[in-house]
Amino acid sequence: MLFPNRPVNWDNRDYRAYCDHRTRQKRRLRLRMSIGLGLALMVGMVLVAAGFATMTI
């Protein structure tokens, strides 16, 4: 009842494939988030450096 479109008699191979798919999906999401965080950090550092470069004493 929880997942009505799931076949009732899954064999172990289907379950392993499903788990592998979820693992790959999570890994891909984690990789995208780390790349995005790295890019945001670099852009932030460039903006801070540009701000310091334009400051006058």
List keywords for this structure.
57 residues; mainly alpha; 1 helix; 75% helix
Strand percentage: under 5%
Order of helices and strands: H
- Low confidence ranges: none
Mind telling me the C-alpha Rg?
A: 23 Å
Helix content: over 70%
Structural class: mainly alpha
Largest sheet: none
Number of strands: 0
Shape: rod-shaped
Q: pLDDT average, as an integer?
A: 82
Distance between the termini: 70 Å
Number of helices: 1
Q: Can you give a write-up of this model?
A:
The protein is mainly α and 57 residues long. It contains 1 helix and no strands. The longest helix has 43 residues, at 12-54. The protein is rod-shaped.
Q: How is this structure best summarized?
A:
With 57 residues, the chain is mostly helical. The protein is 75% helix and 0% strand.
Describe the secondary-structure layout:
Elements: H1 12-54
